[in-house]
Amino acid sequence: MAYLADTHMHSIYSYDGQMCLEDMIKRGISLGLLYMTFTEHLEFGQITLKQFLNRFQVYSDEVDCLQEKYPSITLLKGVEFTNPEKYPKELERLQKLPLDYIIGSNHETLKEQSEKEVSTYYKKILTMVKQGGIDSLGHMDYVRRKFDDSCIEVDLLKEIFSCLIRQDIALEINSSAQRRKGLDSFPSSEKLVIYKEMGGSKVTLGSDAHRLQEIYDGIPVIDERYDFQKGLYLKRNFVSLSDKD
Ligand SMILES: [Zn+2]
Ligand SMILES: [Zn+2]
Q1: 5-240, what's its fold?
Q2: Cα-to-centroid distance, 13 and ligand 1 (Å)
Q3: 166-179 pLDDT, tens digit each
Q4: Would you say residue 17 has pLDDT above 80?
Q5: Structure confidence at residue 242 (pLDDT)
Q6: Counting Cβ atoms within 10 Å, is residue 143 exposed (0-12), middle (13-18) or buried (19+)?
Q7: Mind listing the pLDDT tens digit for each residue in 216-232?
Q8: Cα–ligand 2 centroid distance for 78 (angstroms)
Q9: For residue 245, how far is its CA from the centre of ligand 1 (angstroms)?
Q10: What is the spatial distance between Cα 5 and Cα 20, in angstroms, rounded to a whole number?
Q11: What is the domain partition of the chain in residue ranges?
């Protein structure tokens, strides 16, 4: 069965979002989607925890309301937490919210193109994965939107993947790369081959849509290209959509 879900999207509940939830749902239904996860940004510097928690209540109520209105599609509540490794207490607080899904992401860019900078970026990702408390690792090599990361030490990459597998954290395959200088995906196909060779299987697919036309954009291509256990998180549990093949 095709992957009829988008697990990474931002509505007006994110600081950089423009879409209202209902427009997103109508777009998702028109595309034939069965699941949509709204993963609003939690990025300190843009929002405080208090503001996020207040806003979450409003968001959550609206999602519940829309779920009643549109029963043909399953609506899921998510958050994309930037650098959770820096905020263990706040991450702990998130565990108490009625969330379906927590993505851990790093949105930093490099100061310069150097092996040292690339290594620092990935070490932060390793720390995030080691800490746990997240369901998936979002757009792992997002740094590629501006810098070439091919000098990454393979051992460090493998350490991240083995930690992901051990911690039972899914790897997100983010299709927004296709809208960035025609890259394939975040992470790149080369990294996905290594993940697979190491026994990695759980993946989530997301478009990272901030605009209506970006919803589900590029996901069918990725779905066709890779043979993984593709799924999504519902009440923080992985549900495979591949099993229904
Ligand atoms: Zn965003
Ligand atoms: Zn992101």
Answers
A1: TIM Barrel (3.20.20)
A2: 10
A3: 999 999 999 999 99
A4: yes
A5: 85
A6: buried
A7: 999 999 999 999 999 99
A8: 12
A9: 32
A10: 18
A11: 5-240
